[in-house]
Amino acid sequence: MFCPYCRHDSSRVVDSRSLEDGSGIRRRRHCPQCSKRFTTVETTSLSVIKRSGAAEPFDRAKVINGVRKACQGRPVSTDDLAVLAQEVEESVRASGNAEVDANDVGLAILGPLKRLDVVAYMRFASVYRGFDNLDDFESALEQLRREELDATTESGTKVVQPRFGFR
């Protein structure tokens, strides 16, 4: 590793720690030539292959911006969106591939978004999955209701009030 101050081609690692979110390693280094210390951050690269075939680095901000419109007017905070973006990145990285299809990123968004806010999930899914008519919405709503009923049955508790205001 080159020293950013004197360009010496060797440095000594003084301290290594994982980043808070576990996405990489932070290293404190010491240059024997100029005696200055500097910090490096090591992460694995993750590229997203777009529909056009172009590759670009994975960007949590793009995930947040893509979901933000679906969450407009919903009780979803900026921190919630940051956590969602982290979950999506962890999910995509867990595939073990250095390159992932943009479609896979969209699919990775759906699960955490559904847990966060089902209305925002329906908004996002309607655009992402290209709902063309009311039947598409009704099918998605029925699937959500079945999942909710299954979860209620498994937990043994009775739902007093429906989550959706249009039953």
From TrEMBL:
Its cofactor is Zn(2+). This is Transcriptional repressor NrdR. GO terms for molecular function: ATP binding; DNA binding; zinc ion binding. Keywords: ATP-binding, DNA-binding, Metal-binding, Nucleotide-binding, Repressor, Transcription, Transcription regulation, Zinc, Zinc-finger. Belongs to the NrdR family. GO terms for biological process: negative regulation of DNA-templated transcription. Negatively regulates transcription of bacterial ribonucleotide reductase nrd genes and operons by binding to NrdR-boxes. The keyword Transmembrane helix does not apply. A zinc finger (unnamed) spans 3-34. InterPro entries: ATP-cone_dom (IPR005144), NrdR-like_N (IPR055173), RNR_NrdR-like (IPR003796). It comes from Garicola koreensis. Residues 46-136 form the ATP-cone domain. Binds 1 zinc ion.
